[in-house]
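Input (structure):
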């Protein structure tokens, strides 16, 4: 998947004729500029400078469960019992901060603790 974003190194953009030889970041053209048109905007938005390396590693779910021993369950008049701990959106590592943001890598993990009894 290709992701697009505004490049964070905008200070190195084209500023005067000849800058295109030393940078890949196009000049800024605002919507109220006489030179602005939809073709120019399209060229900028599809520029390779806006393509991010979205290499990432995501740990989506972790689930741990423990069944209580039968000896303890029988003392509590249970046929079985289980304690379970789940983590969703556990962690994400991405090559760039921009890609991590666009891929939802800053979403807080969800923790769930469950205790299940069977009588």
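Output (sequence):
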């Amino acid at each position: 998947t290709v992701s697009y974003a505004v490049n964070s190194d905008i200070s190195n953009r084209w500023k005067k004729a000849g800058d295109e030889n030393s940078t890949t970041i196009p000049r800024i053209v605002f919507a109220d500029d006489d030179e602005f048109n939809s073709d120019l905007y399209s060229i900028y938005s599809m520029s390779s400078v806006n393509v991010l390396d979205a290499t990432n590693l995501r740990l989506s779910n972790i689930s741990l469960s423990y069944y209580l021993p039968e000896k303890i369950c029988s003392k509590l008049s249970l046929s079985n019992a289980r304690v379970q701990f789940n983590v969703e959106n556990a962690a994400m590592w991405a090559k760039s901060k921009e890609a991590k943001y666009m891929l939802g890598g800053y979403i807080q993990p969800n923790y769930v603790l469950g205790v299940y009894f069977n009588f």
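Notes: Strands lie at 56-67, 80-94, 110-118. Confidence is low (pLDDT under 50) at residues 1-5.
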